[in-house]
């Protein structure tokens, strides 16, 4: 009987922990919100970005092995985010101010919502291939993760504003205003083939790695001394 009650208590604790872990983040203590410190919010978005990059890397690698097993296919550099000015190494990223780096992160995340939705739609049309069915599910997963991460970074920016660490001008800029229409329309064609899918995955892996690294650098420049 004691063992049964122990199991019940463990399950209740796990259920409570899951509900607390999924509570929405807020900075003002509204009902139903979980108030987190800025360091905690940074940790959450960094963990999410690392997971997102890990999935994108695995998906890109598996895609290459399945469709191009005998080729070392190089991305054709048609990434639609090339118009977003991003620091190319750690030193340059550290030279960016907190505001500029936060804006770059939000731009990159905002620019991927439509292309990933297009990738999911295109892959889900071909259900005859088991791999495409698998990849379409993964594409949907990372599409949701991008939106969740962007919401988390937005909350992080709001918290930084409240603490006087960020100006009030940080906001979202439409990706259409950042890149030539010809590059953006590449992802809005009616049909995408396997090479197009590869290019999307290649570009997203690259940009998700940037987001992950920029968030870590932003944390260290904002809260120095915390695992930096």
UniProtKB/TrEMBL annotation:
Coiled coil: none annotated. GO terms for molecular function: hormone activity. GO terms for biological process: positive regulation of receptor signaling pathway via JAK-STAT; response to nutrient levels. Its main location: secreted. It comes from the Eukaryota. InterPro entries: 4_helix_cytokine-like_core, Somatotropin/Prolactin, Somatotropin_CS. Keywords: Disulfide bond, Hormone, Secreted, Signal. It is found in: Secreted. Residues 1-22 form the signal peptide. It holds the Pfam family Hormone_1. One of its GO terms (cellular component) is extracellular space. Belongs to the somatotropin/prolactin family. PANTHER family: PROLACTIN LIKE, SOMATOTROPIN,PROLACTIN. This is Prolactin-like. It comes from Stegastes partitus (bicolor damselfish). The lineage of its organism: Eukaryota, Metazoa, Chordata, Craniata, Vertebrata.
